[in-house]
Amino acid sequence: MDEATVKVYRFDPSMDKEPRYETFQVPIAAWKNRRVIDVISYIYENFAPDLSFREPCRQGICGACTMMVNKKQVLACTAIAEQEMLIEPQTKYPVLKDLIVDQPKAADDAATTSMDAA
Q1: Does the CA dihedral 39-71-51-103 come out positive or negative?
Q2: Which residues of 65-97 are buried (b: 16+ CB within 10 A; e: fewer)?
């Protein structure tokens, strides 16, 4: 029971007609007291080398690793992993592949929001 069950959204528009989910069993050493991005990296390195995701800064600064974990928007580089996780891309942007969304569109929205708040 020490394994984590991680369900990951998968979609490659060049090959898939519809999104699908893959479920992975991750050992305790790879998820307990780790960040979500560490778990995704473990899945990539051990089970799904074709999984696409972003992890540029790993410091909670750039926001490129923003995704949905258990239906909540988080930065994968700062959010603590849980024993049961549903990992999906951000919902309001077009998915380019798997957990990667159209970042320029996301950045444009962030800039507009910032200007509106000023």
Answers
A1: negative
A2: bbbbbeeeebbbbebebbeebbbbbbeebebeb
Please report the pLDDT score of residue 106 as a whole number: 53
The phi and psi torsions of 114 (rounded to 5 degrees) equal -65, -40
Token digits for 35? 């960040």
What is the model's pLDDT at position 108?
A: 52
Contact (Cβ atoms closer than 8 angstroms) between residue 84 and residue 62: no
> Domains in the chain, please, with CATH?
4-117 (3.10.20.30)
At 37, is the secondary structure helix, strand, or coil? Answer: helix
Other CB atoms closer than 10 Å to residue 118's CB: what's the count?
Answer: 5
